[in-house]
């Protein structure tokens, strides 16, 4: 295990139907112990892997489209990652019916060196309709995307997500390791546009860190927080916190909720990053410094004075954004990119 001294703060005795806003709007992570201990799926998971599978299969929709399963050889030891030169991945994607994937996990559960199997980010309302009627949180009216994650002993490299995340273990156990967003440069992040599952990941193997290759990772560990989650425990991961997830049992199920604190019409900031790489990063140093000041003025330090000298009716994109202005701005941007 990594030498991490700080534990993620823990909260107990919370009501899953009345989660406090100071948690859901927080900027610090928190473990919510036992918050879903009474969910039927948690009780089934505590009984056995077979009971959990039987419970999940009770919500299968006949003729449903297959799920995407990541499958890797036993040699990857559950670490879904790149190949040696980062030209490909060390796993394959397979489209299989959910029931087949679950049966395969049970088949390999007793084997000492099974293939690594991971069914990630599968939308519950699509593949398990009715599941949330008995296994759900009240999130204060938030329009959250609820997904299920199922697998054996898997390791998911440290990565960021733009939405806030409430992730709940309902079968098996997981170790979660978190880093503040500011540890970006110390986590040695891989390619932005070629990733195992959509998000850029840390290239550090948490099971065997190569400190010669990644020396700043020692500094990242000074800021890390860790927790082991039992069935029924959840962890709140604020937006853009780095998180490494390790499943510790031969059968594991996690349910999570993602939501953003911004209107649905706002694009992801990752699009702005990609455009900045394309248009700003390769400028001469003095021009890049000028644009750093421009971004500071119009974006990072923008306030009422930024456009206060312009008549209000003439501020256009410098006015506070709403859905109509955002749509017009997006159309203008697409027009410029496509010319």
Give your account of this protein's structure:
With 339 residues, the protein is α+β, with helices and mostly antiparallel strands. It has 2 domains: 10-259, Cupin (Jelly Rolls, Sandwich); 269-337, no CATH class. The chain has helices at residues 21-24, 40-47, 49-57, 98-108, 124-127, 217-221, 269-279, 285-300, 323-337, and strands spanning 10-11, 30-32, 67-72, 79-80, 92-96, 116-123, 145-151, 155-159, 164-171, 174-179, 225-229, 234-237, 242-247, 252-259. The strands form 2 sheets. A 9-stranded mixed sheet has the order 1-2-12-9-14-7-6-3-5. The protein has a 5-stranded mixed sheet with strand order 4-8-13-10-11, with no helix packed on it. The longest helix is centred in the last third of the chain and has 16 residues, at 285-300.
Query: In percent terms, what proportion of residues is strand?
Result: 15-25%
CATH class of the largest domain: Mainly Beta
Count of alpha and pi helical runs: 9
Mean pLDDT: 96
- The general outline is globular
Which strand order does the major sheet show? Answer: 1-2-12-9-14-7-6-3-5
Distance between the termini: 53 Å
Low-confidence spans:
none
- Helix share bin: 10-25%
Number of domains: 2
Radius of gyration: 22 Å
